[in-house]
Structures are given as C-alpha cells and as structure tokens.
What we know:
By secondary structure, the chain is of the alpha/beta class. It has two domains: 3-284, Spore Coat Polysaccharide Biosynthesis Protein SpsA, Chain A (Alpha-Beta Complex); 310-415, UDP N-Acetylglucosamine Acyltransferase, domain 1, CATH 2.160.10. The strands form seven sheets. Strands 1, 4, 5, 6, 8, 9, 10, 11 and 12 form a nine-stranded mixed sheet that branches. Helix 1 crosses helix 6. It starts with a helix and ends in a 13-residue tail after the last strand.
Amino acid sequence: xxxxxxxxxxxxxxxxxxxxxxxxxxxxxxxxxxxxxxxxxxxxxxxxxxxxxxxxxxxxxxxxxxxxxxxxxxxxxxxxxxxxxxxxxxxxxxxxxxxxxxxxxxxxxxxxxxxxxxxxxxxxxxxxxxxxxxxxxxxxxxxxxxxxxxxxxxxxxxxxxxxxxxxxxxxxxxxxxxxxxxxxxxxxxxxxxxxxxxxxxxxxxxxxxxxxxxxxxxxxxxxxxxxxxxxxxxxxxxxxxxxxxxxxxxxxxxxxxxxxxxxxxxxxxxxxxxxxxxxxxxxxxxxxxxxxxxxxxxxxxxxxxxxxxxxxxxxxxxxxxxxxxxxxxxxxxxxxxxxxxxxxxxxxxxxxxxxxxxxxxxxxxxxxxxxxxxxxxxxxxxxxxxxxxxxxxxxxxxxxxxxxxxxxxxxxxxxxxxxxxxx
Length: 423
C-alpha cells in the first residue's frame, strides 16, 4: 500500500472511530494533589492538565468524535473541558467533545469499573453508530498517533487491540501484562502479576498494557452487555473483559513506538508524587524526551489570557533569574532565583527567595527570602517570607507530606490556608 493510499485508509478509519476517554480516576497515590480534583485534571508541564494529552492525541490523529467519562470530584475537570475543548471540534462537521458524567443511566449505581462506565452509556454510543471504539485512559502523559494502531487492528481482522509498552520485569508487576505469540496475538493477560512473563525472545522485559484499546464497536457492545449480566464480574477491562475473550477472539498487542525512529514512545504514569515531580522536571532539561515544542503535534489546552513572564531587578544582591526552568505566563520573578524548576501560571517569587528542583502550580506566592528545594507546591499556596522547605527533613515531615524519595508536597491547607475552589 502506498503512503498516500495508507494515509487515506487511516483517515477513513479515524473518521469512523469514536474515542472514549476514561477520566473518572481518583489518583489516590497523589495524596493531597487529588483532594479536590480528579487525576486527569492534575496540572502538568507548566500550563496543561493531564487530560489534555490524550485529547490532543485524538485531535491530532484525526479523531473528531470524543466522549469523556467523568466521576470522581469532576468539577475542575469539567470546567476545564468546557472552557478549553468545547469549541475545538466543529459540530457542523460531525465533531464533538462530549462529557459523559456518571448519571445512573442504567441503574441506581455510579460507575463501578472501567467497563461499566462505558456500559452505562451504551444508548448514547449506539446513537453515534461508530464502526470502531477507541478506549483511552485519561491520566497518562504521552504523544501517540492512534491512526496506525486502528489501521493495524483492521488489517489483522482483530476484535480487540491493546496498546502496550515494554517495561522491565520488576516494574511489570504494577501493570496488566500480556503474553503474546510471534505475531503479537495475545495468548494470556494477567493484571499485576507477581511473576510477569517476558516477551518472546527476551528475558528482561514484559509487555504492559497502556490502558488504551481499539474494539470493533458491535463486538465491544455485546461484551459489555454480557459483562453487565455477570454478577461475579468487577466490570473492569483488565480484570474481566480481556481475560474472558483472549481464547475465543482475536486480541492483538500493538507495541507503542515512535513512527520515525522505531524506538519505544515516551509514556509516563504520573500517578505518584515522585513520578509527577520527576516527569515535570524532565521537561526542564535541554532536550527532553517529550517535545512540547513540536508544531506538528500541538498539545492543546485552556488558558486564561495572561501577560508574559517577567524578571525584574538586575543588582548584585537582587537579580530576577530563572535557569534551566519553565516559567509560564503571568509569573513575576522579582529579585529572586529559580533553578531547574517548573513554574505554572501566575506564580510570584519575591526578592531574595530561592526555588530549586521544584514544581510550583498556579497562583502560588513565595515570600521574600524563602528557600524551596525538591518540592511540589499546589495551586494557591502562600509561602511566608523566610520559610525554608527542603533542607530539614524532620521539620518538613512535621508540617508537610514527604515522599520516600524526599520530595515535599505542600498544599494550602498545610499552611493554614482555606482551599480555593479553583482546583
């Protein structure tokens, strides 16, 4: 198939695909960062939310029909989606970004699992009449063209295709792990196994599910109905749906690779405070693995209109500088120093303050003379003048949350401040 013909093939398939983004997760391992917001609504990368990455992947892949299933503390997520994504796709051309909150459409229960979330919206989905359904996790950071995955699904005559990563065996215990044959057909699937099976021909890595699936639509709908009728099921794709079909139906793994280099694609689960901190600070390196400056694959988001970042004072003992850092609009670095950090919108760092190796979420104030190291400061924190965070572990543990890796999480309530509902 020529490149031009393949592009037309993929374009036709993406037009016939409905994407469903599972965005109801709590993200409990992020602790206080998800006290007032769902994990997909957590900030990332200086100006984005996690949900922006799978949604941008859909739009950039040519998928213009998207449903987003929400549940846990969804207010800030829904507000973000309404403000930033409602106008991206044209209804006149058949496109939409539609929010599908848990609304007890089929019973008196809320969404009981990933499969149940979609089952409870079957009437809506059937009305849309898609040929294929792309089910996506809404809480991971990556850039992926879904078109080739859908094309591979169709070319193989698959009933279901699972996108996957190669992960070290020791790390695979935290994933759904697939055993495959030489053609990448899935022959076994185990959710968080104690003894993961390596990929054929390797001894050091296993194939882990990314939580992204392609289904033939009618096949998916029939499986969801059968699962809903099973009182023994937990109504989850990884625990129930996939294991129940791999022996009788064609289920294939789709290894996630960069289409240009052939190397495994960038993917991060920022589901712990340490992982969140590390993935944000990776972006401050000279050539980060995640290129957010790629004009051919823009990451879209909602952002308020803000003035440019500002750095003021140029005196020997009072100079506003930021080195190896990301600094977003509305920030003012006033006679202070910021090193290897990520500052989100409207952060103010006052004179003689020092911020190092830290992630500072929007609308945060850092008082004069304060010193902040290896910290995550949640939205709306006000750090008093002279406060020191990240130098005395015992003092930090008495006031804040300190991870096993020594990252300090600070939220407004820990500073005696009332929560502001701009989560």
